[in-house]
## 1
Amino acid sequence: MTDVEALTIGRVGVDLYPQQSGVGLADVESFAKSLGGTATNVAVAAARLGRRSAVLTKVGPDGFGDYVRTALADFGVDAQFVTTAPDLLTPVVFCELNPPADPPLLFYRAPIAPDLTLTEDEVPWDLVDAVPLLWVTGTGVSAEPGRATQRTILERRARRGHTVLDLDYRPMFWPDVETARAEIGWMVDHVNVVVGNRTEVQVAVGTADPDEAADRLLARGVRLAVIKRGAEGVLVATEYERWTVPPCRVDVVCGLGAGDGFGGALIHGLLSDWEPHRIATYANAAGALVASRLACADAMPTDAEIEELLCR
């Protein structure tokens, strides 16, 4: 297990992308499937950059669950920690490419997604203790028993190594903002790297102002705050310095998955011991490349592709 460099925990599913852009779901004629889910896509993105990644999640006992395991293996992600919830279905997500930059999503996760039923008995505790980088998400604490399991994981991890929180706020998974702030805020106090956009940091720490949000995150023990600002670039902050990385200009095909490509590149930079400014610049380029393509997991860039965009 210690061969794994990055363990991501959380959402998995099958994304169904319309083959017609600019129309609503009612007018779509055909779809193509792709591996999806934030934690899963981040693991794929890291593997694409040569990192030994694994994902801890759950699927249903159905054909889509079989597809998830096969796709992960094909992408070079260790799937041995993907377990099965016997009475639930593997989640399916329909994407509407209208508008392409911020595609609406329709989640089929009822009555609950398998990944939110993760229990302590299904956690590889030796790996949690030893893995250089652990990646958790805000969505992972949106329901029980997954919430309690992830809390136990973070308490045991005790901010060792790189313990990263992807804020990953999806309002449809929460009863209200106050509940999300309480649960995600608890996670902030148990990690040392936080990444999210302005909406997500507002939920987590009560402000959308990037500099103020960074101040609040750092004051709570986070050592690296990464705040994505869309067309205004990325703010990256430590206790001693902060930088704003300008955006990479691309023609947007589908904004879905750009944050996950950013996340995989962030993992690569952290494990490479790069300086924060270099990490953010590299990750920003990775996210831009994904936004210029259709699909999530299949769209994750290689190191050569990222470096080519940086050199333009």
## 2
Amino acid sequence: MERPAQRVFLCFEEYELNSEVAYIILAAIVALELSIHVFSIIVIVPIFERRLPFNVTPVDPVESAQRLSIPTTDGLTLRGALHMPSEDPLGIVIFCPEFQGTHWMAMDYCQGLLESGFAILAFDFRGQGESDAMQGYEPLHWCTEYEISDVQSVVRFARAHSALSELSIGLMGISRGANAALAVAAEDGGVECVVADSAFTTDTLMVLYAARWVRYSTPRWFYLPEWHLHISCRLARFVSEKRRKVRHPVLERSLSELCRRSVLLVVGERDTYVPPENSKRIQAWIGGNSAVWSVPGAKHNSARQTDLQEYDKRTVDLFLNMVPLHRIPEPIAVAEPEARLLHTD
């Protein structure tokens, strides 16, 4: 017959054994978790830093445009051009080109705006087109602090320009340029409207690609929750930032600042680089006066080529939101009040 002291001793031994087992299981989980993250970083960083084979068609210069040299706060010079309408401008739209694109591409997207009376100021990001390159910095298709700084420099230049200083300012960006435009508008309350064509947020797009890779590269029973992919992707982005000495903005944190501005997100239904889902998430983060136009049949950055008339109508209607109603010329077809996201007077 067991004595009480013996029973207590046996229970204590069982408790110690269970604790040891629990610690071993916990250590195994932690080791597995760290191994997955380390493996993810090894796989993701080279993919994240790979230059994608974008096929950007060169565009000839527009002889009627005024060539510009725009200084940055860190001593570089950005090259650009100012396209002025035939009458007094209704406002100014700053065009932010895609990765590997140039400011001469502006008329591929903004011709309708120019013909409707908006001045178009287009520029080349640093290390792109005719602008100065920054020593030690190799631009990629991911938006960094440097692209944001370039857009801020162009906005300051426009506000100081004698022919533009009194005009309302809107931003129009393509792909990476759209990301920079959204980031600057979120910080600068003086930017009244934004058209973001094929925009994306770095963290969300990384997670979407990582989930796709996991789905196609692992057994069906293998599952990683989205929060786990977020951690791995953020760690990979952090490692890449340290390697390349850059900082990628986390747009998701600031997009809500745009809730009182007019924002149009354009996305191609057949875009294989930026899934339409990404634009819908951006709209959810912005809320307020944002809208998504998903263009049937359009691929990445090709919405205007796919539906030119509707593209021009929607972009003109969007930027008319920053024009006082009494200044809008009668020949311009103004959208019905409920179709205009927001108007100022």
## 3
Amino acid sequence: MIKLAIAGVCGRMGSAILKLALSDPEFDVVGGLERKGHPMVGKRLDVALPGVPATCNVSDDPARVIELADVIVDFTEPASTLEHFRLAVASRKAMVIGTTGFPQNAFQEISRMAGARVVISPNMSIGVNLMFDLVRRAASALTADYDVEILELHHKWKKDAPSGTAVRLRHVIEAARPATPSFQVSGRDGMVGERKPGEIGVLAVRGGDIVGEHTVFFVGLGERLEITHRAASRDNFSRGALLAAKWLTRQPPGVYDMKDVLGLVQ
């Protein structure tokens, strides 16, 4: 069995991952992490999250929990994730990172850390990762005559904007159109003039309990192509994260993406 630890185990994503992992015979949940001062620290998981078995207690000691695990899954916040990542590398443990909002220097540290064994992706959904591939194909086929806009919708509690998935979509488009210089526009207001060549609008909507929606518009003269993914449940992300965890335990050290997990050829 794969010994699994979950960071942010009492949060929206952490609890969704936990429930799926507990129903999967390939996983043994050996630790649940929360930040220091969290009211559930020290309590059994069945008390912190009614309806799940009492496999272990909620802990605020990442070094101890990571040491117990084969792989840790982390969908928390950049500073916490980076701390957990450094501990995982030092302990030669695998790590799946779904956290978004990293500053560039932190992302570079993760990407370049010697000895790391990690899957990092802004979105673990299998459908979204297929969307990345479809958007890449569309962007390479549709010339600069097609204007590109990205719209993302998320729940009101999301802290970063635009979403990591929207940022990845923009990067995918830019990489597929190297001859077309581009720049991001995050909003338009007032007399901004005509749309400038190379603009990629990346617009964020926040409200209610929207799990996550992303649409990329390729807008030409006389036609429009839209590629949309809508998530109805966090289970999509949880399934992808656990699939990545299983895959990663069989891999040598390296920094991987969900396209590696899914075998998508660029």
## 4
Amino acid sequence: MLASALPGLELLATAVVLVDEHSRVLYANPAAENLFEMSVRQLKGHTAAEIFVGAERLQAALEFARSNACSYTEQDLELTPAGRLPLQLSCCVTPVDEGGERGLLLEFRPIDQRLRVDREERLLSQSLANRELIRNLAHEIKNPLGGIRGAAQLLERELPRPQLAEYTSVIIHEADRLQSLMDRMLTPHRLPQLHAFSVHEALERVRSVIRAETPEGLEIERDFDVSLPPIVADMEQIIQALLNIARNAVQAMRGKGTLTFRTRVVRQAIIARRRYRHVARVEIIDTGPGIPESMQDKLFYPLVSGRDGGTGLGLSIAQTYITQHGGSIEFESRPGRTCFIIHLPIVEGAPKH
């Protein structure tokens, strides 16, 4: 049998499907089941036209490979499993022959995976540039701030009338406020203090803060994967990153709507070209108006904010913390649903703190 001649495919992260000479599915590995969100039982015995909407180009690729007895790669396929969202895929079709029985081996790779890797590398480079910009900006502002505050204190002592001290007090107070802001801008540069902890513990801390800040009009839902192993990270930095994202979501909803914290284990995931056996996936979802398209490309830039009075540092700092831990952060947004997706590596065998 063709399927019995293909050992080892169960462990591949690449989606592999074997079809017979009539293009009916004989076998699909677990990665293919995950990709198409269909079991082997649902796939087996069916043709591409029966499984997918818009499978004409895939069928043409199968016919070409079969007729010419050669491998053929279709680089840009859009396949839609029945009742599911479209998938952007590339597919390599290779003829196989075992004991006179002929078939085709199909290897599917999501195009968005390659795009995501490119986007992660671009975001990492952007994060490093942001970090340097913030550091330089903070240092440039901190130096004259000390001089301004000191001069205001000296002036206060020389004032002829005590009532005038009100003005110097304003100067000192505002200098202190800016000093505090500069310190927060520099905070991401301290080295992480690593230990093992549950992401759910961090999310519960975030939930408590958000609930205290927004006592009415906001519903917070939790959808936790209880099998999620601990991560090894700086807990305070991870909490701050998640809190910054959650606060942005609440502000986008003007404090009224639903905020959802969701966690899942992702197997065989790639972050910045490095493969991990297991990764923690954290989603923070809001029911706000969505992120304007004009802001989406520069959302993680420092000093960029879509809110009056915002510093534009929250998401930039969140991105810095996440990338410092070897993770990634991305988002999907449309009116009524914005989802920030954070991936953090799971260290195998890490003890719980």
